[in-house]
C-alpha cells in the first residue's frame, strides 16, 4: 500500500513541523500546517465549526502530510489517514528546541503564517501565561500519555503508527520513506 495521507504529531517543540515538511517534500505530497489553519489574523481563535470546516477542506484530497495535534480533531483527521508519525523526543530536547525557536522568532519578528500579522514577542514567549515554552512544559506528559493510548485504541486500528524517539530514528525513517 502506498502511503499518501500522513499526520505528524508531537509535543510543541518536538520537531514535528520539520519532520512533516521534509516528508512532504521527499514524498511530493502537499504540506498542511494545522496552526496555519487554526490561527487567524491578530491571533483570532476560530470556533470549532470554523476550524473543522477549514481542516476538512485542506485534507479533502488524497495526498497530504498534516502537521499538528489538536486532539479534538482526531476523529476528523484520522478518518482517512494511513500513517501517524509521532515525534516523541525527550523532554529536555523538546524544551531546548521550543526555547530556541521562541528566541529566534522573538528576535526576527517573522510573521508566523502569511497574512495573519501574528508574530511572537519576547513578552509573549517568556513572560505570558500564553507562552509556548510554558505550554510545552505543562503539556509534555499529558500529550505523550494521550498518544500512547491512541496507539492501542480500537477506533484507530486502521492507522499505522510510527514513534520516533531520537534524531537518528527520524533520520533513518525519513530516508526509508524517501525510497
User: Any idea what the CATH superfamily is called?
Assistant: P-loop containing nucleotide triphosphate hydrolases
The CATH class: Alpha Beta
Count of all domains: 1
CATH topology: Rossmann fold
Main sheet summary: 5 strands, parallel
Percent strand equals: 5-15%
How is the largest sheet built, in terms of strand order?
Answer: 2-3-1-4-5
Organism: Rubritalea halochordaticola
Protein name: Adenylate kinase
Characterize the structure shown.
It comes from Rubritalea halochordaticola. This is Adenylate kinase. This protein starts with a strand and ends with a helix. It is 48% helix and 13% strand. The protein has a five-stranded parallel sheet. The protein has a single domain, classed as 3-Layer(aba) Sandwich (Rossmann fold). It has eight helices and five strands, in the order βαβααβαβαααβα. It has 179 residues and is of the alpha/beta class.
Keywords for this entry:
alpha/beta; globular; Adenylate kinase; 5-stranded parallel β-sheet; Cytidylate_Kinase-2; single chain
SSE blueprint:
Blueprint: E1 5-9, H1 16-27, E2 30-33, H2 34-38, H3 48-58, E3 64-67, H4 74-77, E4 83-87, H5 91-108, H6 122-126, H7 132-151, E5 160-164, H8 167-177
Parallel strand pairs: 1-3, 1-4, 2-3, 4-5
Helix pairs in contact: 5-7
Amino acid at each position: 500500500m502506498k502511503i499518501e495521507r500522513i499526520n505528524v504529531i508531537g509535543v510543541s517543540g518536538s520537531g514535528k513541523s520539520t519532520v512533516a515538511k521534509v516528508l512532504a517534500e521527499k514524498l511530493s505530497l502537499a504540506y498542511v500546517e494545522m496552526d496555519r489553519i487554526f490561527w487567524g489574523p491578530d491571533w483570532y481563535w476560530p470556533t470549532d465549526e470554523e476550524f473543522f470546516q477549514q481542516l476538512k477542506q485542506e485534507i479533502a484530497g488524497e495526498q497530504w502530510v498534516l502537521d499538528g495535534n489538536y486532539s479534538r480533531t482526531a476523529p476528523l483527521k484520522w478518518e482517512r489517514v494511513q500513517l501517524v508519525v509521532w515525534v516523541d523526543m525527550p523532554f529536555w530536547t523538546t524544551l531546548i528546541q521550543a526555547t530556541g525557536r521562541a528566541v529566534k522568532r522573538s528576535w526576527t519578528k517573522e510573521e508566523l503564517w502569511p497574512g495573519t500579522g501574528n508574530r511572537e514577542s519576547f513578552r509573549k514567549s517568556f513572560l505570558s501565561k500564553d507562552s509556548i515554552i510554558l505550554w510545552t512544559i505543562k503539556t509534555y506528559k499529558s500529550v505523550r500519555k494521550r498518544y500512547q493510548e491512541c496507539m492501542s485504541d480500537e477506533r484507530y486500528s486502521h492507522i499505522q503508527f510510527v514513534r520516533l524517539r531520537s534524531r537518528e530514528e527520524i533520520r533513518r525513517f525519513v530516508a526509508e520513506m524517501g525510497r
